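Researcher: Quick test of sequence recovery. Tokens follow.
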């Protein structure tokens, strides 16, 4: 009976693997196009939401997302569309990345993330595909197609952080030193994957590099990741970092980092900052 159970488990896993490989084969022969995705998104668009999104994501003259175009698709609806096109070829996904419309690029990222997560499961693991998807993502990031905070935040943890967990993380240090805002944000957000596995070392390293970043969006991102080290790993390691660097941290970064601490601790670190500012 025990042997039968082992054989059943073995053949079940083999069947899952074969089905997954078949899906990849079909992907390469897919007739779906970026235009099909765009039409599906257009069906979910709500023009009344466009002014709200433009204000929220700062698309005005001189703002960080100047020129970004929205069609008013809600994120849950966008995710559903992405799940309908999981076999879309990388060539067609690249067409979505090249679109000036925010939701098109967002769908491209959702498809990449869903495909990457499937390739990372123990029963369907495909390291070659994981590497291909991560590399494809980095190229899109470096040519400015992952260019708003929501696009970075939904993708960097998986396509950068998860992939680099057991590899050299030099790429993150390079991105953190970039002149491009979204590359720097991707670097720090990617460390969320490490934090969830009880490793805050890279987060603290990058936080030091980004300590004097001028962008408020970076202050929020770094503070957020620092806060997560204290919540998910150990509060003591966060306090040790704050003892050394709180006085140098921008106010927004510090506020985000100390959010979950006690009133007494928050007051202490704010006072350190105030002493330096006087």
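Model:
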């Amino acid at each position: 009976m025990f042997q039968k159970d082992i054989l059943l488990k073995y053949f079940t896993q083999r069947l899952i693997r074969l089905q997954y490989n078949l899906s990849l084969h079909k992907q390469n022969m897919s007739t779906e196009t970026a235009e099909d995705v765009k039409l599906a998104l257009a069906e979910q668009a709500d023009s009344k939401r466009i002014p709200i999104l433009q204000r929220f994501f700062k698309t005005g003259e001189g703002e960080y997302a100047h020129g970004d175009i929205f069609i008013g698709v809600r994120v849950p609806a966008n995710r559903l569309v992405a799940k309908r096109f999981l076999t879309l070829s990388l060539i067609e996904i690249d067409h979505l990345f090249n679109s000036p419309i925010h939701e098109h690029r967002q769908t491209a990222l959702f498809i990449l993330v869903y495909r990457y997560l499937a390739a990372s499961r123990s029963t369907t693991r495909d390291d070659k595909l994981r590497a291909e998807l991560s590399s494809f993502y980095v190229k899109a990031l470096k040519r400015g197609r992952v260019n708003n905070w929501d696009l970075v935040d939904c993708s960097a943890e998986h396509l950068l952080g998860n992939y680099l967990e057991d590899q050299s993380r030099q790429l993150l240090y390079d991105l953190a030193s970039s002149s491009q805002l979204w590359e720097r944000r991707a670097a720090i957000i990617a460390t969320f994957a490490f934090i969830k596995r009880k490793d805050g070392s890279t987060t603290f390293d990058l936080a030091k590099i980004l300590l004097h970043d001028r962008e408020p969006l970076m202050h929020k991102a770094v503070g957020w990741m620092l806060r997560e080290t204290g919540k998910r790993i150990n509060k003591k390691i966060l306090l040790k970092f704050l003892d050394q660097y709180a006085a140098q941290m921008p106010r927004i970064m510090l506020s985000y980092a100390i959010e979950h601490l006690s009133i007494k601790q928050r007051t202490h670190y704010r006072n350190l900052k105030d002493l330096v500012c006087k």
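Confidence is low (pLDDT under 50) at residues 24-29.
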